[in-house]
Amino acid sequence: MRFERRDIISIKDFTRNEIDYILQTSEAIEPLEKSGSDMLHGKMLATLFFEPSTRTRLSFEAAMHRLGGTAIGFAGPEGASVKKGENLADTVRVVENYADTLILRHPLEGAARLAAEFAQIPVINAGSGAEEHPTQALLDLYTILKEKGQIDGLNIALTGDLRYGRTVHSLAYALSLYDVRLHLISPELLRMRREVLDTIRKEIKVTEGTDVSKVLPEIDVLYMTRIQKERFADMAEYAKVKGAYRIDHDMLAGVKDALVIMHPLPRIDEIASDIDTTPHARYFQQVRNGIIVRMALLALILGAAE
Amino acid sequence: MRFERRDIISIKDFTRNEIDYILQTSEAIEPLEKSGSDMLHGKMLATLFFEPSTRTRLSFEAAMHRLGGTAIGFAGPEGASVKKGENLADTVRVVENYADTLILRHPLEGAARLAAEFAQIPVINAGSGAEEHPTQALLDLYTILKEKGQIDGLNIALTGDLRYGRTVHSLAYALSLYDVRLHLISPELLRMRREVLDTIRKEIKVTEGTDVSKVLPEIDVLYMTRIQKERFADMAEYAKVKGAYRIDHDMLAGVKDALVIMHPLPRIDEIASDIDTTPHARYFQQVRNGIIVRMALLALILGAAE
Amino acid sequence: MRFERRDIISIKDFTRNEIDYILQTSEAIEPLEKSGSDMLHGKMLATLFFEPSTRTRLSFEAAMHRLGGTAIGFAGPEGASVKKGENLADTVRVVENYADTLILRHPLEGAARLAAEFAQIPVINAGSGAEEHPTQALLDLYTILKEKGQIDGLNIALTGDLRYGRTVHSLAYALSLYDVRLHLISPELLRMRREVLDTIRKEIKVTEGTDVSKVLPEIDVLYMTRIQKERFADMAEYAKVKGAYRIDHDMLAGVKDALVIMHPLPRIDEIASDIDTTPHARYFQQVRNGIIVRMALLALILGAAE
Fold first, then answer.
1. pLDDT digits (tens, 9 = 90+) for C22-78
2. Do A70 and B65 touch (CB under 8 A)?
3. Least CA distance to B70: which residue of chain C?
4. Between residues 49 and 108 of chain B, which touch chain C (CB distance below 8 Å)?
5. Is the separation of the CB atoms in B32 and B298 below 8 Å?
6. Distance (Å, rounded) from C-alpha B46 to C-alpha C57?
7. Do the beta carbons of residue B251 and residue B274 sit within 8 Å?
8. DSSP-based three-state secondary structure for A44
9. Catalytic-role residue among C15, C16, C54, C55
10. Do B97 and C288 make contact, defined as CB atoms within 8 angstroms?
């Protein structure tokens, strides 16, 4: 399978075989996360972060450094100023001269696809609009695989803001390639987008609900997300909803012993801190897996692994 | 010729022989842009960017990385906060302890010269005030040389804002060392500064004008620059001028086949996108040449090339 | 003596033996500051700067690069945005996955200690609240040692803002482990904090005063600090105080030939520039020593030196 020079824009661009291949490459590369490597010595990535995402940026930079490569780029307020007056196509055609791959974060949907069309070097979408965040989906899959041994056959709940959270969109598409049962638990206002739902329903069994406690006893993986206050016009509605999509230690009575709780982070208070020390908590493990999966992706698209 | 430990402050500090030498070194180092090198392994540059210039900063950092060196520094909003309360001489005497060369961008004219006086390590001016941007001039010369085979004998137009654009000041000085004919095309309000004009007229034939279409058929190189709205008190005047200093595909009827169109970027809409795909467009090539010339400069002043 | 995996949070966590050991390691590592080394090749530090401190950040990054390691992180305005909504414990548990050591700067006292409790990798306090700045104290000690041959037996004045300056708190604690005589010279409003004074008085002879000129003839080291306008409600009071804690060339008549003048920088105008060229001025030497001491600390805690 050839990934060299390939763009990573949407999880929908990948077949199950390709995703499995990325996950296998991640397993193979995992020991290098500790030992380090010079596999990408002389290679450089450029981060173009038009909106802030310190965690994702650092994860890509760390992955590159662990493989012996280097990183340049801009982020946050500086990214905002770059945007002024110059169109994205020009920025991409400038910055691609500086590096071997571009890592793009942008507030607009479609930005990563546009960048990939103009760039002659591979582009990785590190989040664009509310649409997609493919590397997050891949690290989520890798975490499930590592924790459960396999993805097929699992009973998985996605919980919280399923409308605006780009993470859950990419993850839902990815999971629909596997033989899983999916529960989508959210407030009415924040239900999974219609286009995602229509697509994944063709592939797997999906139920929707508003009460997480109803599915808790039967699920293998609970994927929590943050509900942002800004989504609500009515603060009373927000207050009500917020409490209902929070999980704490008491709610874990009756769950499966091997229940895995995940979260893309940052969390506000969706997961009480008394869960952090339980064996269910895997959200910090996800962070570490993020580096490993990004090491694999960088090695693949830059031609150092195959 | 010795460049080790030399400051790069103004293009006026260099003789034609020295500039030719830098351009030759750039040609020699160009293959390393792709292959990479450890020529500057263990060397470090520090970027002191007191005003934002993401492209220039990334170009220097990429050049350093391609030669195996590393980069630290500050930029943008952080640069602004450094400025508070501490004078530039102190900042320079602090940061020079951290690195092997300083790359300075500053809103005030004369800042780079002052920094070089205080620093014991070489300083490169990455743009100071509206005055000078010597590495841009060098990469422009390198682009002309690569595209045309030689600089002598060419017919070159500089167009747009010739009053406030630091790029065109440095470039005009540099071109005056060669046997070229120079056309300066700008609105009345944005004519080339008197001191630049007086200096270059002693060396080469210079004409001034306001209509780019008049010189288009005879020129070999068209160097476009951006006209900034902020320069105009009268918006009606701006609107008129703006349209007159914009070039599109239709205007290229009758130009020389080998006409080269350049721009320091970012552009707003001075060059229509329908020109990007013509063989005349060389502005993204300039970006790549920028890395190569900066690799050569870093190698020279840090004693790795001679 | 084992420093591997040890946190550097407060100077109070170290015995005199341990501090002497760090200073000896600094002397041993000093030649590598010029020659470079690959001692920490493959190691990575992460800077978490929740408030700006460009100089300290660059010093740590430069130290890491000089030993062949790499650096990632956030700072300044981006740091401020990271803080929003996520607690420090979570940020630490995320970022520790990216690197081998965390360098933390935070506006709140106690933040570095908290970070160290949550992190499984060593944490270095790069300044937290008005409390402590241990690596600055170590570089100050190293400067005194290098300039004077030994610390014991010296007569040292700390001058300026002794109340809010974290640098002088850490330094006072550190000096109290040596056989020195300490003069604390400050405005009434900015006297040394009671808890520091009580602690160090148990160990060494300390005098307090408001007039630096009275101690100038007898001291070996004059440590100046900045008095910040923001500390004063009454601007007339500030104006009076400010002038009294400023030193210039004329005041040096009658001081010891070998008087060493130090300052943590940035200075505003506490030290007149006519002192910069005297042999007393050592504040830029402190900057260079800062890299050396931080190289030693990084090598120690990452297990590359012992």
1. 999 999 999 999 999 999 999 999 999 998 888 999 999 999 999 999 999 998 766
2. yes
3. C65
4. 70, 72-74, 77-78, 81-82, 85-86, 89-91, 93-95, 97-99
5. no
6. 12
7. no
8. strand
9. C55
10. yes
Two tokens, residue A239: 């207050």
Q: List pLDDT tens digits, range A178-231.
A: 999 999 999 998 999 999 999 999 999 999 999 999 999 999 999 999 988 877
Task: Strand B181-185: give its sheet, edge to edge.
Answer: B205-209, B181-185, B155-159, B221-224, B260-262
Domains and CATH numbers, chain C: 11-132+290-301 (3.40.50.1370), 135-287 (3.40.50.1370)
| Tokens (6 digits) for B8 | 């790069």
Output the CA angle A210-A213-A215, nearest 5 degrees.
80
The proportion of chain C whose per-residue pLDDT surpasses 90, expressed as a percent, equals: 81
C-alpha to C-alpha distance for A173 and A293, rounded to whole angstroms: 18
For residue A242, what pLDDT band results from cuts at 50, 70 and 90?
A: confident
The predicted structure's pLDDT at residue B80:
62
Give me the pLDDT at residue A236, please.
Answer: 86
Dihedral angle computed from the Cα positions of residues C129, C135, C139 and C140, in that order, rounded to the nearest 10 degrees? 30
**What dihedral do alpha carbons B114, B117, B119, B124 form, nearest 10°?**
60
Pick the residue of A58, A289, A293, A294 with the most C CBs within 10 A to test the interface with C by mutation: A58
C121 touching chain A per CB within 8 A: no
Of C42, C78, C89, the CB nearest to A76: C78
pLDDT at B83: 59
Q: What's the gap in Å between the CA of B218 and the closest CA on chain A? A: 29
pLDDT at C82: 66
Q: What share of chain A is helix, strand, coil (3-state, %, to 5)?
A: 45, 15, 40
How far from C248 is each of C149, C238, C270, C272, CA to CA, in Å?
A: 26, 19, 8, 5
In this model, does residue B182 exceed pLDDT 80?
A: yes
Question: Does the interface ipTM go beyond 0.85?
Answer: yes
Q: Is C34 a catalytic residue?
A: no
Contact between B76 and B56 under an 8 Å Cβ cutoff? The reply is no
Residue closest to C139 by CA, chosen among C264, C9, C40:
C264
How far apart CA A83 and CA C77 sit, in angstroms, is 18
Q: Which residues pair with residue C8 across a beta bridge?
A: C124
Cβ atoms of A64 and A71 within 8 Å: the answer is yes
Tokens of B2: 């010795």
Contact A94 B287 (CB under 8 A): yes
What pLDDT digit, counting tens, does each position of A243-280 carry?
A: 778 999 999 999 999 999 999 999 988 999 999 999 99
Q: Which two tokens stand for residue B65?
A: 């990385």
Q: What is the mean pLDDT of chain C?
A: 93
β-strands A70-74, A101-106: how paired?
A: unpaired
Kindly state the helix (H) or strand (E) to which residue C89 belongs, with its residue range. helix C88-95
| Residues ≥6 apart with Cβ < 8 Å to B76 | A77, A78, A81, B49, B51, B52, B54
Query: How close are the terminal C-alpha atoms of chain C, in Å?
Result: 7
User: Please, which pLDDT band fits residue C235 given cuts at 50, 70 and 90?
Assistant: confident
